[in-house]
Amino acid sequence: MTQKRRFMKVDFCKISVVVLFILFALSSDAQAFFEDSEKTKKNLFKAGMLDMKIDGADPFVQRNVVEGDEFFQEFYLKNKGTIDFDYKIFTENVSGDLCGQLNIKAKAEGEEIFDGKLEDFSYSDNLKAKKNINWNLELKVGDGDWEEKCKFDVYFNAWQKNFSFKQGWNDAEEISGNEVVFIDEPKKKVIINEVMWMGSTASSSDEWIELRNLSDEKIDIGGWEIENARSSGNSLKIPGGKSIDSNGYFLISNYSDESANSALAVEVDEVNSSISLSNFGNGNLVLKNEKENIEDEVMGVEWFFGENGNNKKSMERNNEYGNGLEEKNWHTCEREICASGYFWDNPEENFGTPGEKNSDIFKIRIEKPPNTRR
């Protein structure tokens, strides 16, 4: 028996239609994918501002320091920008033999955050936008074998939060020119504080010189002398056994307060009838200790201040005493306290504060100056 092969009939027309439909669908999906989009409306990108300021800071400039001296600096660290920042405050460029003996204590908003060596000072924190921090720095001279000076700068670096100083926005400030000097000139312990070079309304010879002890210790001044305090440029000698109390005053006068030629109402510490001060061309007053070392010197060739008219007014040293040879460190005693009856038998005619603190220290009117002898 003959077998016949059977063939499947394929309808190519139908297959073609199906394939075309599938290809069309795929091509439609692909077209939809590549053309799809999303939108956000009213987008705004705003840059912040980082701005750090140091307000009220001046350099530490101190001369003639000794062990135990302390100096203070107060200022405000301000974030004037619109973004928070991290910051660091530290010392840099520290140089000089004295630096190793300088300690610094730092307070932020009254809280102590550092107490140690100047050269080790470093502190980091953060500060919110539009906020301020009150800073206090205290510099203290420690003990040890040291000399000469120390120079240093205080730096402030601020940078955008979550970044480093070299990344993102940053700002920097500094307090430069800081200098502390130990050996510039010996620190004075006793100075010539007030001079009544013209006399008083009681007598033109009613002249006196007042010394001031700047230290916290009683000082023996026996054997000391004041050059050009007598006629012909001779020296006035202070006898042995004389001393000045700590932070006290010592009054040397031509007459005692009981003399008819004296207008003084306060007790005199040393009466020396040889005092003679010329109104013009006297010569500088030079205070020397018992070893003949100069303690202080005052311009007397031409008196800077004082008044020799109907009223007699003394020449006073400023509380910040400075160099006695410079005019800026003196003034005329003419405030109300200067004509007080506690100082003078005939007030309103004579002006001065003999045996007491000078008039620029009296900040307010007082009825009686403290520690007046009478």
Labels describing this entry:
single chain, 374 residues, mainly beta, Immunoglobulin-like, 6-stranded mixed β-sheet, disordered N terminus
Descriptive notes:
This protein is mostly beta strands. It folds into two domains: 52-181, Immunoglobulins (Immunoglobulin-like, Sandwich); 190-351, no CATH class. 6% of the residues lie in helices and 35% in strands. The chain has one helix and 25 strands. The strands form six sheets. Strands 18-17-12-11-23-24 form a six-stranded mixed beta sheet, with no helix packed on it. A five-stranded antiparallel beta sheet has the order 1-3-8-5-6, with no helix packed on it.
List the helices and strands and how they pair.
Elements: H1 12-34, E1 52-55, E2 61-62, E3 70-79, E4 85-95, E5 102-108, E6 111-117, E7 122-127, E8 132-141, E9 149-160, E10 170-181, E11 190-196, E12 208-213, E13 219-220, E14 225-227, E15 236-237, E16 243-244, E17 249-253, E18 270-271, E19 285-288, E20 294-298, E21 307-308, E22 312-313, E23 315-317, E24 330-332, E25 350-351
Parallel strand pairs: 2-10, 17-18, 22-25
Antiparallel strand pairs: 1-3, 3-8, 4-7, 4-9, 5-6, 5-8, 9-10, 11-12, 11-23, 12-17, 13-16, 14-15, 14-19, 19-20, 21-22, 23-24
